[in-house]
Structures are given as C-alpha cells and as structure tokens.
Amino acid sequence: RQPYCYLVFNGRYYLVDKEAVLLEDARSEPGKHDVAKVKVFSLKSNGVGKVVAFPYMNRFAEVCEAVRGRLGERGWQIYMTGDGVKVFLGSGFFILLGDGDEVERKMTLVPALLKSMVKSGEKFVGLNLRFLDSPSFIRKGAGEKGVSGT
User: Fold this and answer.
1) Which of 125, 89, 95, 99 is nearest to 107 (CA)?
2) How far apart are the first and last CA of the chain?
3) Residues 4 and 34: beta-carbon distance below 8 Å
4) Residue 21, pLDDT score
5) Which one of 13, 38, 111, 140 has the minimum C-beta count within 10 Å?
C-alpha cells in the first residue's frame, strides 16, 4: 500500500492510502511522506490496516484526483465536512464543491471561471460550484451558505 494523503482531524495526522486504509498510527505532526493533507471534521479509526471513516469518504479519491489534475500537487487543501467539500488555495481563495458529485466536470470549469473572475476586476473570495448548472462567485462578506470549515 502506498501513502496517498494525511487526513487531518483534531490536530492529528492519519496517513492513508487511496482506499482510506490507515497506514500508520496517528501522530501530532505529519511524517516524512510528502503527500497532500485533507482536513476532515469527523473521523473514526479502527487502527492500522483498517479503513478510516470520515465525511464523503466514498468520493475521497475522486475528489483528490480531480483537484490534483486541475490544480497540481501543491498549494491547496481539501476540507471534507458534513456540509460538503471545500478546496482552499494558497491565497485563501476557496472553491465549494458541494457533495463532490461530478467533481471532475466541476474542476474542468475552474481555469475558465478564474480567468473570467480576474478579467472582471472584482474582488471575490470564492467560487461556488455546488451546483454544476449555476456556478457563481462569492464576494467577501457574502457568506457561503452550506459549507463551513474556515
């Protein structure tokens, strides 16, 4: 089994593979593996070698792969909460992905939407892609309805 990412929960780092199988005991600092970090707001572990349970675990690998494919390996962090999936970019800008449904299609829209946002000259803090048929930008102070975790 290959290390895939650290699930971060309550200040502890859980190294898992692509199927969310725990590869080593949780630790207070990330280990030597240079892998992505996915923050979760609920987690149940039955020990090393067992699958870790957390919100949206059924879409875990699909979301990670789609984000990596469009944003590269670095400069982002995924939050998976009971309310949905949220991706933070290094700048603090975020993307709301809802329940992770059609995440690959949603992520293909990101480059064009970000270009449109920059071209508009307006200041936005986020991109709402919870509903594929109605993407929207989120202005600072407008709130985010639906996804918490900031």
Assistant:
1) 95
2) 32
3) no
4) 96
5) 140
